[in-house]
Amino acid sequence: MIIQACLDCLSLQDNCDKELLNRKDLCYDFLAAVAPEDIRVCQIRAMRLFQRHMYKECVSVCSRALEVFLSSDSPGDEETTSILVHRAAALFTISGHVPEMLRDLTAAFEASPRLARNHFEALFSPGEAERVEKHAWTALEGEFAAYKEAVRVRAEVRSNGGQELLPPVLRTLRFLVQVSPGALRELNVRLADCYLLEGNITASLEVCNCLLASAETTYRNTLLAQRGFCHLHANCCPEALRDFQAIIEDGTPHPSSCVKALCGRGLIRALGGDPYLAALDYLTACRLRFEETGFVIKAYLPWNQRGLLLVILQEQVQKMLERKEKPGCGSGAQLEKPGWPDGLQKEGDDFGIHQLASLLLELDSSDRVSRLLCADALYQMDRLEEAHESLWVALSKSSEKSPVWARLALLQLKKGCVYDCNQYLKKMIQAGELSCLQGFVKVLKEEDRVLLKNHCHTRAVTVLKNKQGEAYLKEAIAYLSLAITTAGDNAVDSLLVRARCYGLQGQKKTAIFDFKAILKEDPRNTQALCGKGFVHLALGQKKESTQDLIAALQGDPASAIAEICSLKPDAQVQIRSWLLEHCRTALMDFGRSQDPLVVETLEELSKVGESLVEMDNKDSEAHILCVDFLIARGRRDLGRPKDALSYLQRTFGQTEPNDAVNSRLGILQAILGNLNAVHVLATLAAKDYKELEHLMGFLDANQRLNLAQVAAREAKAMVKEQCHVGALKYLTLAVVASKSNPQYLRQRAACWAQLEDYRNALEDIQKVVQQHGTNSMKTQVGDFCSWAYMLLSISDEELAVKQYINALQLEKSLALSHILTDLRRDELSKAFLRTAQSYFAADRYEEAWTTAKFGLLVDQNNPELKKLKARIKRQASGCKVQ
Questions:
Q1: Residues 454, 458, 464: CA angle, nearest 5 degrees
Q2: Which of 179, 395, 471, 725 is 20 to 30 Å from 706 by CA-CA measure?
Q3: pLDDT in tens, 481-523
Q4: Angle at which helices 368-380 and 350-363 pack, to 10 degrees?
């Protein structure tokens, strides 16, 4: 009651009443003594001290009051606002307390804008209010600059560090909105911006829509950019793109807004699968305002999409550096507007690529890939010292050092510091991370690529020449691998050397892989073909080795021969043997086929024969092979047989003839129509010369027919003179030349029979029977009878009887006419009897019955056969023998 009475007294008007003033002073003193923490007392004391210009005391009282308010459960906004504004007014009067003053004012306006405004207008004169406003603007810029700096120094692109600095900025903005009506639109624009940066998308979008809906058009592009980012955060990409595109298409664009629009559109393009166009947007933004581009990405783009954007831009910068993608005016026709600064539509050159790479480094200074891209861009701009410095920084920060060493090695080599270059390369080799060079070589200039490749190759050759051992072999292979990686498509020399090194290491399959890599680019590379062939030789792979060496000899015989002759003697012998065998097989195929492809292959293989002769001129097999090729090719070229004959005479004319030479001589004579060939070839036929049938393949059908007929006539003449031995060789030649004609086989079988060589006779007659088809019945019956006769001659009675039965079953009268003229009819009858008896004894009644029946056809009056037939009938009465 007393406190309230004092308060009521203090609320009375003074009216210059001295007594009332004294009472009020007493009330002030009393209240200060008995209720110093009462909110109403504090408020009145602050007002009294302020009015008496006791500003420091006023600040002290206000501070004490605020402490009390804050400790209470429910401090009133009205009292708090009043105290804050009074303390701010006191601080304003005391110089050097602007930050504290602004903090109190912003807090007061946050608590109760209406009351704070009333107190502010009451305590601050218009001039003072203007000064406060200026202080607030200055503070606003400082606070926002602090936020931007915090964003700039973010260590990680996905971080949102610095957002804690935005609430003071927002409070200052809301204060200025209350006290600066003349800058209301600008302040609201900035307020929407800060809401966006803080992550309050709904509030920011509401302010943007409200401002854009008004009649005033200032800050339109800024608001469109802010609204676009709001849509982007809300995953409304079409709406965001529409806002960004409107800014870009504006005839009088605002650079800052354009940067934001390009960054926003770039992200949408990246997410939409157009990484190249996205990169062009960011490249253009960098050219407009580099630092602001980095800030926009870090502050305005959604945090969970910045990492993906960084990776996409890294890939595009790598492609630009590799010249796979060239940034140009394809960035979009919408960019070509008259309001754009000069040069922004220009093709992105190395400088533009470097700017984009630098942006990536700005986004994440710890990212190894971005730093390497930046160094590569500097290299392409010939700013080698800066590239070197950048790489040194990367070397100190990155755990993966090999990519950095590769780049430092090239830079040192370009400077002429070969020793330093070698040290860096050696470190790469020791680390075993040679693959890191693959990405780097793609950005190298052609002259630098050649320089580094040649250096690595030379280094490898030097190691191979001067040092020995497994370790140095591995070192040489590593240098060669670097040379191959650097060279790209032009690494034949290094691939050859590395393949040979792998061969020495025993890694034969790896060596083959290198040789194949060469042959993929140059299928006729003689050294690669020979090397691959030698490795297959070492692996015992006959077919593959032969194919490779033949291809080498056909392409460059001189070089291939030199390669083969450089091998050890045993290896040379093996190669020659395989080549000879392959060529002979091809010649045999030619003899059996007239396929044009076979003929073409024969033409190519003739070079192999010539090469074999060149390797060893004393090798008779190689010379014979060349003769065979000339003979085979003579089918199409009538001059070839004469060349072959001349070659044969020139090569073997001074040596003692052998079967190989004589056989070729005979074939050539036959081809040339010389009938003396029959005598030479018949002699070889008598020896059963293994190549004779193969050589016959060189003759055409008419030549073989003539040869067979002439040989048959010679044989016939000798048979008349009872010289069956002489006749045999001619008949053998006739058989070979005619491809086992049954006529000549029968004649030779008869000749063998005359000489009582029934086994050879049997072989011939069996071949005849196997060819039965369209022969007449008489001929077939005669062949069976002849077969049976020869079997009987070697005492093979059972088989002989079977063949006689076959003849009788074919045509009984013809068979009997042959049998009845046989002088050994009694012997034949006994053969039938003994065969039937053996069947009967073995209970083979049906066969016994058949044999006895046909035996009686041969000898109708043979009593033993009749008795046996009756016994068979009785014994096998239950069996069907008729």
A1: 150
A2: 725
A3: 999 999 877 889 999 999 999 998 889 999 999 999 999 989 9
A4: 160
Q: Which of 318-322, 611-615, 868-872 has the lowest mean pLDDT?
A: 868-872
DSSP state of 741: -
DSSP secondary structure string for all residues of 669-730: HHHTT-TTHHHHHHHHHHTT-TTHHHHHTTS-HHHHHHHHHHHHHHHHHHHHTT-HHHHHHH
pLDDT at 7 over 90: no
Joined together, the tokens standing for residue 560 give 């291939």
The rounded radius of gyration (Å) of the Cα atoms in the chain is: 56
CA 297 – CA 287 distance, rounded (Å) = 15
Taking the C-alpha atoms of residue 263 and residue 290, their distance in angstroms, rounded to an integer, is 12
- Does the structure show a pLDDT above 80 at 681? yes
Question: Please, are residues 194 and 164 in contact by the beta-carbon 8 Å criterion?
Answer: no
Contacts 24+ apart (CB under 8 A), 401-409: 401/427, 401/431, 402/427, 402/428, 402/431, 402/433, 402/434, 402/436, 403/368, 403/372, 403/436, 403/439, 403/440, 404/372, 405/431, 406/436, 406/437, 406/440, 407/372, 407/375, 407/376, 407/379, 407/440, 409/452
Cα separation, 513 vs 499, whole angstroms: 8
Report whether 765 contacts 744 (CB < 8 A): no
Q: In residues, how long is the chain?
A: 882
Please give the Cα distance from 65 to 228 (Å, whole number): 46
At 600, list the tokens.
Answer: 């073409």
Give residue-wise pLDDT tens across range 746-795. Answer: 898 989 888 888 889 888 888 888 888 777 888 888 888 888 888 888 88
* 816 vs 760: CA distance, rounded Å: 26
Do the Cβ atoms of 146 and 165 come closer than 8 Å? yes
pLDDT of residue 510: 94
CB atoms within 10 A of CB 505: 14
Question: Above pLDDT 90, what percent of the chain?
Answer: 41
To which residue do tokens 């305005």 refer? Answer: 300
Detail the DSSP E strand segments found in 145-239. Answer: none
3-state secondary structure of 237: helix
Q: How does pLDDT run across 842-871, given as a tens digit for each residue?
A: 888 888 898 888 888 888 888 888 888 888
What is each CA distance from 271 to 225, 356, 634, in whole angstroms?
A: 18, 18, 72
Q: Using an 8 Å Cβ cutoff, are 282 and 263 in contact?
A: yes
Cα–Cα dist 564/533, whole Å: 10
pLDDT of residue 265: 97
Please check whether residue 783 is in contact with residue 769, taking contact to mean a CB–CB distance below 8 angstroms: yes
CA-to-CA distance for 139 and 133, rounded, in angstroms? 10
Let me know: does 313 contact 278? Beta carbons within 8 Å.
yes
Q: Is it the case that residue 100 has pLDDT exceeding 90?
A: no
Closest listed residue to residue 660, CA positions, set 641, 680, 630? 680
Question: What gap in Å lies between CA 299 and CA 281, rounded to an integer?
Answer: 18
User: pLDDT tens digits, residue range 364-384?
Assistant: 888 889 999 999 999 999 999
Tokens of 459: 């280094």
Residue among 102, 100, 61, 56 at smallest CA distance from 83: 61
- The Cβ of residue 342 has, within 10 Å, a number of other Cβ atoms equal to 6
Nearest of 699, 776, 719, 718 to residue 742 by alpha carbon: 776
628-675 pLDDT, tens per residue? 888 887 765 555 788 888 888 888 877 777 888 998 889 888 888 888
